[in-house]
Structure formats: structure tokens, C-alpha cells
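Team,

Forwarding the record for the chain on the shared tracking sheet. I've put the sequence and predicted structure together so nobody has to dig through attachments.
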Amino acid sequence: MAEEAWTYGCALGRTKGLLIRKPEMVAAMVRKARRPIMVVGREVEDAELDDGRKATDYVADVARSGDIPVVTSAYAYNALVERGVRPAAMSLVEIIDRLQDPGWKGLDGKGQYDLALFVGAPYHMLSQALSSLRHFAPRLTTISIDRYFHPNAKWSLPNASPAEWREGLASVARALRGHGHRPSDS
């Protein structure tokens, strides 16, 4: 059965993102990527999961386990720093604009990113951002590891309860732990 967008009207056009049924697939794609990046929105700090922890705890674990550079909004910046992640601060609109720019050399000046993980941005805003990337940055693989299915991402985790989302994020982190991502050849 196909997964549906969390809210109606978010999947326009002929293409629809593919569903990730096993969270470990995310880790495999991150390991295969030459230059992954994670874009973290403000809602991870507000999202409390079924175990009493914040989604930020699990998102930070994914970033640390995969050695993935992180860009976040100012709202979530300190929460990630407190959890051992050194993010760059940038609005969602700004990072989307940069990811679309073929001349941008990345946060570290070493080249464009080929895979972007997204989590924690407001649903409607992220839906539009992913649609923009789908049309104007086709070289970029986009993956939503959010709690809700995003049809505008190339790949997305399914709609999930807080417990299922927590376990999904924990599974991604476990699969990345000790492996990280393959370094770029540059």
C-alpha cells in the first residue's frame, strides 16, 4: 500500500517520493553518499517522544553516528550543541536556496552535497522546500526522516506514531554507528 501525505494538497505533479519501510535504508544511503548534510528544523526541540525524551536527542545521535554535517535554525541550535553536535545556523529558506545553487561549495568549501536529510521543519514549509529542490536541484537526493511522510522528498519515512518515529531514528543511528559516511574523494 502506498503511503499518503500527512496532509492533503502537498503532492502536486507526476512524481511522488518513495517510502522507506526499513529505517536502516537511510543509513545505507548516507554511507553511500559522497557528501551528505542534515537540515534540522525547530520542531525537533518541541517534539517530545513517548519515552519522555525530545526528538533532538535522537536527531543528534543520527548526526553524530554518521558524522553528518548539520544545518539548523537558530531555535534548535543550542539544543544540538548541548548534545555534542556542531551545527551551522541558517534558515530553511536560506539552506534550500544554497542547495539549489550549482556554484555553492558547501559549508566547508569542499563541494556540493549529494544527499540531504530533513527533519523537524514545519510540515507545509518543508513540503514546499522539498518541492523546490525536486525541481531545481535534481542532482540532490532528498530524504525526510520526519515523523510524517513527505511526498516531495525523493525518499521518506512513513507517517508514524511518536514511538514508531523514535524507533526509526534510533535504528538509523544504530546502523550508522561505527560506519559513518564514506569520505569524499576531494
